[in-house]
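Workshop exercise sheet. Pairs work together: one partner reads the sequence aloud, the other fills in the structure field after running the prediction. Swap roles for the next sheet.
Pair: D.N. / O.F.
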Amino acid sequence: MLSSIEFMTAEEALYLIDFILPRYSLSTLQETVFCGVWAGQTYAEIAERAGYEHSYIRDVGFKLWQMMSEALGQKVSKSNLRAIVSRYARVQWSGDRPLPLSEPSELNDQHLTSHRPDFQQVMEASESPNLEFPSGPVPLTSSLYVERRPIEFRLYAEIMKPGSLVRIKGQPQTGKTSLLLRLLAYAKQQRLRTVSISLHKADREVMTHFDRFLRWLSANVSRQLNLTPQLEDYWNLDIGSKVSCTAYFEEYVFAQVQEPVLIALDEINQIFEYPNISNDFLPLLRSWYEDAKEFEVWKKVRWVIVHSTDVYVPLNINQSPFNVGLSLSLPDFTADQTLDLAQRHGFDWAKESSALEYLQPLINMVGGRPNLIRLALYYLKQTGTTLKQLLDDAPTTSGIYGTHLRNQLLILRSHPDLTHHYRQIVQSDEPIELEAITIYRLENMGLVRLVGNRVQPACELYRQFFKFQLADI
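Structure field:
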């Protein structure tokens, strides 16, 4: 049991900080510094990843260690942090007298015992997880969410900056919406008001006219901020839709909301297929971001833009929102992240030194695609089948990916031109060149990955399945 403490993650250690410093809530940057030091990073490395000066990060760390030293009654520093916190966890876990806390009369042992997290439950959760079928975003309450550090830390720090803009790009079903859910939850914890707009939820009629799209957007933002839409009071055809929408946000929406507002636009790539919308809305979005440099009202707003593909919309470089702010790409799972997820599923073999070697055939087949890995681990856990059996059937319609593969095939065959190009891709042993718009359409379906300016199948699973299915066309 004590060995589990020695391998405490940064997140588990942060649980303890809430009890070591019960009347103090760590800022995002303090959490970033704490987790970085816990992971063995230098101040310089933390500063580079977080985008701050080295001296500033060192000062943040020094003040945090000083507060912990006063609370614990002993010297805490960067070098002994893990030892001190681990010892504190061991004492609390074993039920012995806790280390001294400041003002013990206000915070007694009973309070600590009743409110501290159950570390045995936290650390052993992966041994008996409550598995949900892997469909859609990973719920906030799930123990199966795998962090992509330091991406989360950089996002959390960035959205706390007035007038910031963050762009999150990733292939379909790589965890973008799961990450967005956690970003929105974090923003709420930091007392930001949040708005989440999924572009794929917009009716086709909304995309027929730019004015209608802006009214749809304005009404959605209003309702999510618990405001009654008052569009008619601000919409004026004589001044145009852009000015009307801007005035609506400035004079009505943000004037009614005192707190900072995080507005997330999920699947914004949906509008790339509607030039009548994208050619006007994307420059407008860029102008709102730029207005934060001059107008206080726009400093309230933090933008998060989530998209699945590169941008193939011709925009003036000074009008595009895709070359400003913080850009982060959400990659496929690494081998270590795949192993982490296997351990969270409670597999005994995942604790062995040979676990990565055992998982490698799965990684080779699905290429680190999070949704495909999650599905495989779910079936391995629920059915008791062997990994070899699962992979032998994987690229067939009778395997665990059968429904997914049939859906992809159906969509692909509805576009004969794409079917022709994808047949070339899966039959080639090397990445091939295609027109940018073709790459965009295939990437939007999640069927390819970019290798420089060329493309190849997104994973071996797709290569094998589609090579057989498209052989006769």
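Discussion prompt: Confidence is low (pLDDT under 50) at residues 1-6, 93-128. What would you look at next?
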